[in-house]
Amino acid sequence: MTSQRVGLWLVGARGSVATTAVCGLAALRAGLAPPTGCVTERLEGVSLPAWDDIVVGGHDLVSTPYEKRAEHLARAGLLPHHLLAPIVPALRDADAEVRDGYHPTTHRGPQELAVRRLAADLETFRFKHDLARVVVVNVASTEPPVPVVPEFASLESLRAALADPARAVLPASSVAACAALLAGCSYVDFTPSTGVALPALDELALAQRVPYAGRDGKTGETLLRTVLAPMFTDRALKVLSWSGTNLLGGGDGATLSDPARAASKLRSKSDGLASLLGGPVTAPLHIDNVPDLGEQKIAWDHVSFEGFLGARMSLQFTWTGLDSALAAPLVLDLARLMAAAHAAGIAGVVPELGFFFKDPLGWDEHRFDRQSAELVSWARSLDGRR
Question: Where is the Myo-inositol-1-phosphate synthase GAPDH-like domain (predicted)?
Answer without folding.
Answer: 220-324
